[in-house]
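Technical appendix A lists one of the benchmark inputs used to test multi-chain prediction within the project. The record comprises three sequence entries:
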Amino acid sequence: MVGVLVAAGVFLLLRPGLLRVVLGFVLLGHAVNVVLLAAGGLGRRTAALEEVGSDTADPLPQAFVLTAIVITFGITIHLLGLLRRDAGGPASGADPTDGDDHTRSGDDDTGSGGDGTGGAGGPGTTGRRR
Amino acid sequence: MTGLLLLPVVGPLLVAGVLLALPNRTGLHRVAAIATMTGVLAAGLVLLVRASGGALTVLRVGGWPGPIAISLAADALSALLVTVTALVVLGCLVSAVGSGDDRRPYFLPLVLVLAAGAGGAFLTTDLFNLFVLIEVMLVPSYVLLSLAGGAGRGGAGRVYVATNLLGSTLLLTGVALVYGTTGVVGLGDLAGVAGDQPTVAVACGVVLLALGVKSALVPWHDWLPRTYPVASPVVVALFSGLLTKVGLYAVIRIYAVVYGGDPGYRWLLGAVALVSMVVGVLGAVGENAMRRILTFHMVSQLGYVLLGLALFTAAALAAAVYYLAQYILVKAALFLCAAAVRAGRGTDRLDGSGGLAGQRPALALAFAGAGLSLAGLPPFSGFLAKFLLLRAAVETGAWLAVTVAVLVSLVTLLSMVKIWSALFTGEPPASSSVAQRIGPTLVGPPLALAGLSLAAGLAAAPLLVLADTAAAGLRDPTAYVRAVTGR
Amino acid sequence: MILAATLAWQFGLAACVPLLVRHFGRNAGYPLAAGYLVAAALLLTRLPVILDDREVTVAWRWLPGLAVHAALRMDALGLVFALLALGVGALIMAYCPRYLSGDEAEHDRVYLTMTLFAAAMLGLVLADDLLVLFVFWELTSILSFVLIGQGGRPAATGPAVQALLVTVAGGLALLTAIVLLAVHLGTTSLDTIVAEPERLSGVPAWVVGTLVIVAAFTKSAQLPFHFWLPGAMVAITPVSAYLHAATMVKAGIYLLMRFSAVFGGSWAWDGTLIAVGLLTAILGALLALRQYDLKALLAYSTVSQLGLLVGVIGVGTPEADAAAILYTVAHALFKATLFMLVGIIDHQAGSRDVRELAGLHRVMPATVWLTALAAMSLAGLPPTIGFVGKEAIFEALGGAYGAGWLGWSAAGLGVLASVLTFGYAARLVHGMMEGPTRQRQLREPSWAFLAPAAVAALAATALGPTVAVLSPLVERAANDARPEGTPPYLAFWHGFTPALGLSVLTVLLGVLMFLGRVRVERWLRAVPTAPPFAALFERARQALVHAGAVVARTAHAPGPVPYLARPLLAAVVLAAVAAVALPDVPAGLGGDPARPGDWLLLGLLVTALAGLLVVRSALAAIGLTGVVGLLLSAWFLTVGAPDVALTLMLVEVLTAVVVMLALRQQPPRLAPVGRRRPVAGAALLAVATGVAAAAGTAVLTRRDQVSEPGRWYLDRAEDLTGGANVVNTVLVDFRALDTLGEAVVLAVVALGLVRLAAGRPVVPASTGPAGDDLVLGLAFRVLAPVMLLASAVLFLRGHEETGGGFIGALLAGTAVGLGQLAHPGGAPLLSRLRSAPLVAAGLLTATIAALLPLAAGRSLLTPLTLSTPEPLPSLSTSLLFDLGVYLMVLALVVAAVRRLGMPPARPAVPPDTVGAR
């Protein structure tokens, strides 16, 4: 299960498009959660709510998972925020592929003038895709 | 006494909350933030004094017993790093006043949260809590990075978040696997386990890999120079002082405690260290803007610290600790110089006009001091750090490491000279307003930090004693483990 | 103590420079010269002690752990070099006022750096600890860099950098040598090391010896490092005279002399010094002969003379040491004089080209005759100190290797170098005297300008016949350099010795060469004499920069993909290595925990994921991701994690809502997957990572026992906290610090969202209620109160059953989200929620709840419970804490929904961004 999730997640990560990256991380997050629960041992599967028996699941990994889910959620939202902002920017109209800001990548500052290191002269294949 | 351990973690959070509740009062915010970090600094110093006497300060959060509670503990290493990073944050806060960064909404609360996360990460003894606190530290950095400046940050922001998120995912996986193999996540309970059980070693290897990604060691380094330079220099100074250092601290701590300094892995650490040193410094020489050069140097300098860890003798560890502590100050000073340069000239690229040495001699002095320290020239702390490290390397007969360390040091100087020649000497620009824009709040912090570097070089004895104590604690973590587990 | 006082005096002098310059302007050089002399006098008070073969020491603990002391020690050798530094320094300071023009800032800089340099030089020769020596050694390099690049003329940058890099490279060699010594001998005390040379032997001795030689050769401009010195001539003349003729370049000589006691007598050490030294002497002289620029001529002359000194030190007899010391003094005197005079000529005539200075002696007779006097010293003509010195050198060279044929060859080479020296000295003087006067308008400089040079020239001449004055000190110094043997008594007239013969020979040959100078010159032009070390160095530097650019290029890749691939690859490698290296995993550990239901879920999961990978529609991709999440929640439910399942489900729903909101204005299609090869690569890495992860999980998580802490929680949680939901108690009680952390994470993300969206109108006025979706609106109206109520219930009961702050807030958040979907223009009631105050409230509540126990004298985050009447839930700090968490989570959701959900009011592009494009 982990393997499938990870494979799919990684594949998405390595493809262009920020949305794919977001979804890829969501999947990876799921995978880690499964690993965490597995780390508690999957042999016991009763919720740790009322009576504690021999089949009661380890509660600690569940607490870990809860924390992890929430953090992943937070960062996912942040990524979406980035996606949203960049999409609303000058290159809007397309799912912002990573090449979009290639023309900007070499620069560092507010309009400090020229950009000699890499951006403007770089390969323009990914420039503006519409 | 144990309440002191809370100050670096909860203090900034509380103040951040207060600041958020009282928006639009910049003056108050500044005072409060600076006061908070001064408090953290004071707490760090007290912890440091206690730790130098060999006493560990331990706090079990919630008052639960050993293996259950998350414990915070300050030995010499942790206390030193808390203190040093508090200094850096203070410097950044003052510089932010000058550069106008702190007028951005939420800047100060975010910095405080970041500082809280870093402080916590230095103090915690629990792997999962480490993960959480690293996130507490990273998330403000995501926001700060995307808050800053102008063009280019979109892509950089994405790279930054994506890389660090992957690092965090790996870290969490590693923690999960450690729990899977051992059933515990407390450092104290894990002491020496990786040395005994290969499965734990693998699980912990994932943790170390993740931390390696976060501390930007080669071959996972290039996100750092890709992303940092787009942020405002004050923010980069903050990042450089805190973020990667937390990763490196954790690597050191975990290798020392969980692996017990297992010699079987030292060659690997050593190789990563040397390659980091070389690649980092080469990249720095090849770059053309102050912040980019400096970020590449981070890779290189972290390599030096890691080299000390890889040698794992008492002398080498002391050298690594001393190196790390002074380097945090020096690098922050350099970035704050960049902040001043950028405030004055509008850019920190090297192809603009120069002449800053004549216009702002104090800034030139700060840069020269910090730059020489970075290159390991006397009488600054960087020299002593390099000397200690070389000494340790010679003692263990690591000739390759000695050679690389010396050569990298020379190339470091080359790149510092490159900055110096381009920005500080030469013809000043026609407009005379450059110097006026660099006020005392921008010059003061880097000068103070460079002065600390000088002091740490000339009056090194106390710091060296601390480094020795920290190194002893790393070589033999028994006391640490006993204090943390309460057994 | 006197040593420390002198050093402090000198540094204090440097500190006073700005004051002096403000008071005296460029004349500040005169008080400074006096100050130098005071320092020299302070040291001279100890002369009797020194001559009595005792030494003056002082030491403080510097790095006690490393047995490194801040120790100073003065013996005769140190005193000679210290007096040189201070004496010549005083002359140069007195020379500066008339030389300098320019503004006050420049005077400040020149005087300050020069005075600091003098102090550094003083420290260097007085240091008794190698580490202290190294500190000053590098300080001289740095100050030299500053002085060469003074004023920042663009033309000066290159040479300054070159000089710095070469000398610092040498410095690093020295540092390595010091480290080796420290490790092998356990001390860095120069005194101790020199006193017991036999303790160093074998390979370390070889390495240290080589490194010391490299250090000295870089500093003293010996082959193949000589090229930086002529380049350094771009500095102003006082700097060239002081640093690059009289003092700094002598630091290498000093170092070699010091270490002669340790390595002298070894074949390799002596041979290297003699060979390289004499070769440099000859090459330098040949190069000097080719120069028209007087300053360049003097620079190569310095290279050559230093070579001679190095060669003599290599001989290693007491005579040789005495000769080296004497000649060091002599060279400092006449070379500084020559530089000063050339500076005067340059200053007056505006040129240093010997071809433009013809007939200068008619308009500037004093200057030219003084030059001639100093040149006599350079050429080794009597009665000057140069003559005595060269005589001593011939004698010493002849005595090398027991005066065998090797010794005579050395002497022969020495003579050759001296003949060439005679040649260029003659050329220098002759150039100013021959032919008609080119520049009639020139005048003699003021006496004040000339005086320092005159003093030095006359001293260099007078010290020839009266050289016996120096004898006691030189003898002692030679003895300090190498304790064995008795150095000879210095005298002007030794009688008819072979050395005198060589002197005569030198002069004869020199005169012959001068007479045939036209032919010599033609020959010199034809023969390439210098290997292009400088060009090689420059090319190496360029190559380095280029390599750096290549290395740096990886950090310019725009997208995240390459940055992600490597850590993943590393993880796969780690797994592969582990697979090979790990011993067989104990079989049957816990058995296969999979159950039939799992396989069903897995099948569904694979289907969903496969779909996810191929779909091109963004909506479908989001939907399928949601499906995956729901499948997992279901699975979590089956493994006994209802809290997790519920949270995940809510998170999935919320994520979906937020994504929908964020993407409302996005194109419905994903970017194309890309070209085939990268796809294949990504797929390969993906599969590999997947396999690694699966294997890792399978191998590393098969525990069948509940972990120790887990057992503890299960057994004791309810008793201790009063909460039946163990997972929740772990979250809010036992590991509350984690929970605080994650809540803070969310709070910060909320702030970030608010910031990211800043610059857009917060509430879009354009879309009114008209845009509301009726069905959703109805659903919202019905569902929202229910959800909010449920949220409250979940929150309150969290401790007992499934629920808690997170889940409650997430549910409330979902309601807000629904509201936003239904009423893009702003849902009633909820639109009044602002996230920043929520964050503040949440953060404050949580931290205060965390800190409250402190007030009660308990530890952080210790749950405190207030007893309350039965029907109400007990009011504990845990609950308060959870409330803080609730608020922060809600803040995030509100921020996400509102900020991301806003219609695409096109953001104002910052003007600078436009400019940058």
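Chain A touches chain C through 98 residues (CB under 8 Å). The first helix of chain A runs from residue 2 to 13. Comparable benchmark entries are summarised in Table A2.
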